[in-house]
């Protein structure tokens, strides 16, 4: 890693927080103009509106950085944190896209599932009202009616509000969202239970830095501010071990992204797991 690349690693979280701060101010102005005092005076509601507005801008930027990895992942072309040419098990069947945001992966899911040749229905699970509204617009824009259904709830409400049954899902897709869900261990367990035996989970998540002393310490320090600026997101989740320990798996291929070294401040784990 060159000095310039290292500097970029260190500055990157702060660049994102600065952009988020700008969208915080935009959100205050929007709410004042709409005289929406109920949202302005509730931290939870304001935070939700802030992140929703931020992600309308940030979603496409984040997609640009991640698509080179997420597309092959959904196509079934990722092994050991790297991309390969042989296709094995693309996303298909009944699919839960968790934390679908503003629908950044809907076009990729549409292309991948169309080429699999199997009947597919994707449920986009997204509790943020601004993001869920953007997700619905995306369904219309891409003509995905009947193939993509928006569920405007959190994971924790899927059974009660959407009548989602345990053991009913072929594939789960989580792209940069397990960093943001509440009670990660409990909700990851709920997701595991929704998978059918033999069902597959496609993961692309940023995780806790754990190699050496300096980078983890710097990540923990940045995270102190990050959790204020980035909605419910945390930089320091041990998502890989949370998923591995949730139940038994027939096959696990969940590794660090091969191009990211120990100096990465926002490292990713990626790959697929198949439920036993
Ligand atoms: C960083 S955004 C990523 C969005 C999208 N996956 C993408 O890559 O553009 C994380 C998303 O997780 C969602 N989220 C937060 N809590 C959740 C919950 N309990 N259940 C499902 N999604 C949740 C947030 O609303 C947000 O849209």
From TrEMBL:
Q: Which UniProt keywords apply?
A: Membrane, Methyltransferase, Transferase, Transmembrane, Transmembrane helix
Pfam families given in the database record: Methyltransf_23
The GO molecular function terms of this record are: methyltransferase activity
Q: Name the PANTHER family for this protein.
A: METHYLTRANSFERASE LIKE 7A, METHYLTRANSFERASE LIKE 7B
Give GO terms for biological process: methylation
The UniProt record lists the keyword Transferase: yes
Q: Does the keyword ATP-binding apply?
A: no
Annotated organism of origin: Emericellopsis atlantica
- InterPro entries (alphabetical): SAM-dependent_MTases_sf, Thiol_S-MT
Residue intervals passing through the bilayer: 12-35
SUPFAM superfamilies (UniProt xref) = S-adenosyl-L-methionine-dependent methyltransferases (SSF53335)
What is the protein named?
S-adenosyl-L-methionine-dependent methyltransferase
